[in-house]
User: Which sequence fits this backbone?
């Protein structure tokens, strides 16, 4: 197989569609259900669980409660993980960082995120997210697939399946990863951008963070492009004959993989060549923009993918799992991400693309207000916390300069306007013109959907 990842659709299929043959490259015939607000999604997934009270959920009154025990009425023992439940004490750990108000809405944002803060009027900050999972793997699986149990299609695969691709020479769904400079971070598995029980051509294509971005994208030594074309033509003929015999749809997927891989041999090198980017654009993303595997590099690639019509682009940035030394680790993590994230928004806006793009920022859960381990004035850590955390959205169809929902005085529970993972997914699909309750796929005798049997569109954050 030419690519290490599946999910490739091709120009070959588009040509067949023009000739009148059936083609699902362009998506399902009955979608979208309504006029979409956006064309594409860029999901900036912050893997590990960013601490909401250190970044976006400002609780100044907690400074006066430093070291006090968090009341069990607020944080009962049965909601603590085994990593911290045996502690003798659960002291309040106020944030070590200063906050400022930004934008017309006066959004409180940490001093660690000045560039993102400067764009507060473009953001809808959701401080009332909550999830069902308390450990990383089920939580990130839930965020990506709508289920804590592995095996369901990822959100990008659902979007690819429903709406197809606008890209001629690139996949509809691309996933990239980067590692924070503060710490290694939780592992990322290919199933997080997998197609589950959907046809395998809808799986995301992984652009690797070191070495060749896509495995086997280059021809072997001694193989010319013309010879490769002749070989693929012969292979496609053989696969076509086999498909006539068996009717196995995966054979068509294989043909599609080979064909787009051939085209990607031209498109991927051009995509990664920044020589056409003006210096002021490169400077906008920061000093790491030319270093493969860095978050800034991936943010610029995301913009270039969006320009080429890629529908779902997901960046996974590791290193947010700060169980200790938040005052030391968090500034480094934010230096990795603050400038490039803001640059992506500015870049899309100046190109007139932000209004047709949805940008999502957030992780799989939040962190505890109590310190994991010993609390000192200069050091603290935080354990996993699913009951409230912060995400934000920007771009098409979103009310910028708004703050949705709130948490209690300890940033432990949602106080108003809670948003579940299913609600988030329903809202994303709504912006794409898809009714999440009607968007189903029958598998093993049951109709499945991304939002399972839950989810409400959060209309109050929509423009």
Assistant:
């Amino acid at each position: 197989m030419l690519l290490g990842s599946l999910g490739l659709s091709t120009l070959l299929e588009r040509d067949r569609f023009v000739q009148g043959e059936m083609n699902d490259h362009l998506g399902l015939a009955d979608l979208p259900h309504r006029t979409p607000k956006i064309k594409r999604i860029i999901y900036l997934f912050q893997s590990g669980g960013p601490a909401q009270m250190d970044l976006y959920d400002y609780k100044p009154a907690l400074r006066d409660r430093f070291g006090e025990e968090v009341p069990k009425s607020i944080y009962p023992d049965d909601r603590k993980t085994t990593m911290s439940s045996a502690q003798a004490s659960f002291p309040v750990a106020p944030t070590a960082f200063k906050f400022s108000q930004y934008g017309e809405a006066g959004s409180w944002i940490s001093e660690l995120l000045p560039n993102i803060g400067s764009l507060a009027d473009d953001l809808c900050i959701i401080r009332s997210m909550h999830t069902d999972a308390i450990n990383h793997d089920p939580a990130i699986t839930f965020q990506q697939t709508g289920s804590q149990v592995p095996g369901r299609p990822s959100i990008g695969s659902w979007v690819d399946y429903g709406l197809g691709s606008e890209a001629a020479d690139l996949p509809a769904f691309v996933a990239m990863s980067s590692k924070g400079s503060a710490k290694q971070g939780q592992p990322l598995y290919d199933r997080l951008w997998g197609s589950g029980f959907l046809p395998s051509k809808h799986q995301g294509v992984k652009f690797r963070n070191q070495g060749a971005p896509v495995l086997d994208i280059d021809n072997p030594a001694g193989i010319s492009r013309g010879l490769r074309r002749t070989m693929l033509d012969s292979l496609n003929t053989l696969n076509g004959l086999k498909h006539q015999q068996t009717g196995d749809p995966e054979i068509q997927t294989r043909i599609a993989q080979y064909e787009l891989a051939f085209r990607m041999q031209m498109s991927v090198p051009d995509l990664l060549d920044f020589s056409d980017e003006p210096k002021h654009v490169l400077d906008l993303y920061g000093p790491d923009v030319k270093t493969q595997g860095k978050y800034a590099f991936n943010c610029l690639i995301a913009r270039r993918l969006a320009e080429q019509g890629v529908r779902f682009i997901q960046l996974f940035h590791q290193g947010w799992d700060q169980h200790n030394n938040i005052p030391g680790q968090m500034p480094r993590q934010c230096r990795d991400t603050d400038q490039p994230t803001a640059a992506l928004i500015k870049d899309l806006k100046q190109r007139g693309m932000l209004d047709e793009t949805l940008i999502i920022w957030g992780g799989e859960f939040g962190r505890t207000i109590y310190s994991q381990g010993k609390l000192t004035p200069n050091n603290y850590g935080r354990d996993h916390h699913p009951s409230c955390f912060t995400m934000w959205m920007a771009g098409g169809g979103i009310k910028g300069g708004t703050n949705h929902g709130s948490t209690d005085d300890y940033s432990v529970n949602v106080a108003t306007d809670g948003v579940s993972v299913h609600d988030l997914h329903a809202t994303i699909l709504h912006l794409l013109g898809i009714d999440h309750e009607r968007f189903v796929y029958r598998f093993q005798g049951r109709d499945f959907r991304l939002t399972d049997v839950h989810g409400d569109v959060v209309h109050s954050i929509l423009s």
